[in-house]
Each structure stands twice: as structure tokens, then as C-alpha cells.
Amino acid sequence: MKVTLFATCLVDMFQGDVGKAVVEVLERLGCDIDFPESQICCGQPAYNSGYVEDSKKAMKKMITSFEHAQYVVCPSGSCAYMFKEYPEVFMGDPVWEKKAQELADKTYEFTEFIVDVLKVEDVGAQLKGTATFHTSCHMTRLLGVTEAPFTLLSNVKNLNYVDLPGKDRCCGFGGTFSVKMGNISGQMVDEKVLNIEETEADILVGADAGCLLNIGGRINRQGKPIKVMHIAEVLNSR
After folding, report:
1. What domains can you pick out in the chain, each with its CATH number?
2. Which end of the chain is more exposed for a tag (fewer CB within 10 A), N or C?
């Protein structure tokens, strides 16, 4: 099966190991991975800040970059959902609306693709420890991926899972929200870290790089002995 990787800006610039883990997991599951070097930002920061027209240039570049793909897989629910927004952005455009819809229809978040398309629930991973999982807002509320991560985590050998109190609450990142509303964002991530500590987990797992950077940054500054891992890294543990 041919899979085209949409790596995202944050993975590309800050979390390269996450991208490598995604590739290695999918290759073990029999996928042939393609990476278009022409891919750039999906346009989400500008779009969410209200600069819709300005964001269209980046969106068109991404549509063109992934036009050849059979399946597009993304290790971020937030960025995967942005592709799902493209048809609405280009609604009424006789050329780009159709192309945007084709891209949206073949785009999947990483865990969603493994469970719903490949029909795999156990990737053969093993990791010793106690973990809890942060459910990101875009991935659960907008993209609608709610069960796949937990299905995969439940089959990681030697991993003890503990449910996160207040898991439905935002970590305070919210893209540009964390910049524009820094004080509020800081209070939200502090609450998130307290909830993580309550579980007594030594590993925090998530599926969105932005959330993990935000929460992981606070954990690091507070000197908490909690390891932060993207779910792709967990599933790549052997």
C-alpha cells in the first residue's frame, strides 16, 4: 500500500524522531512510504487567525504536493483536520474545490489509518511503564478520532494505562491562542500537568505535536519526572 506522509511543520522542525517513528511503524505494517519534499505549512496558523485569503496560497501548494497520493497519513489530528477544511475554504471554486475534496477524502490521522484502514489493532510494540493519554481538541472534537489511539495503546505489551482526569479539557496550546492569551494558556497547561500528576503515570502520550510541546515544556520547566512521547514513538518501541 502506498502511503504519502504529511509530516507537519512541528514534526519537521522540532520532532524529527516522531516522523521517523511514523515511517518505521507503517513500513513494518507493509506500507510503502512516499514523502513529497515540496510540502510546506498547511496554512492553519494564518487561517485560524482570520487570514483566509492569505492562507489559500499555502493550501494550493499542499493540494498540488499531495495530488498524486493514494493515502495521506499525518501524525497530527490538528493538521489532518486542516486538510478536511480545505473543501469549505475553496467552496464555489470550480477547480480547487474538487481538488481540495479529493485531498480531504484520502487524508487520515496516523492512528486512525492504522486501525480503520489497515485494520490493525496490535502493532507488536512493547514499552514498560505507566502511561496516560492527552486527547487533543482538534483530533477528538473536530476530526472525530476518539477510539483508535486507545485501541492501539491497550495492545502495547507491558504498558499500564491510566485514564487522565479532565482529558476533555484543552491543554492551553490552541495554536496562536497560546501566544495571544499567554496568561490564560499558562493556567490551562498548569491544570493539565496537575491532572497528569494525579494519575502517577511516568509517561504522557499524545498524538499532536503542538500539545506535546506545550505540555512537555511545562513539565520540563517544573522538573517533573514524566516522559513525554508521541504515540508513534510508543508504537515504535520494541
Report:
1. 2-116 (3.40.50), 121-235 (3.40.50)
2. C
Spatial CA neighbour of 58 closest among 34, 35, 90: 90
CB 40 within 8 A of CB 58: yes
Q: CA 110, CA 77: separation in Å to the nearest integer?
A: 8
Q: What is the pLDDT of residues 36-50, one digit of tens each?
A: 999 999 999 999 889
| Grid cell locating 154 | 491497550
pTM over 0.90: yes
pLDDT at 82 over 80: yes
Dihedral (Cα; 119, 138, 192, 218), 10-degree rounding = 100
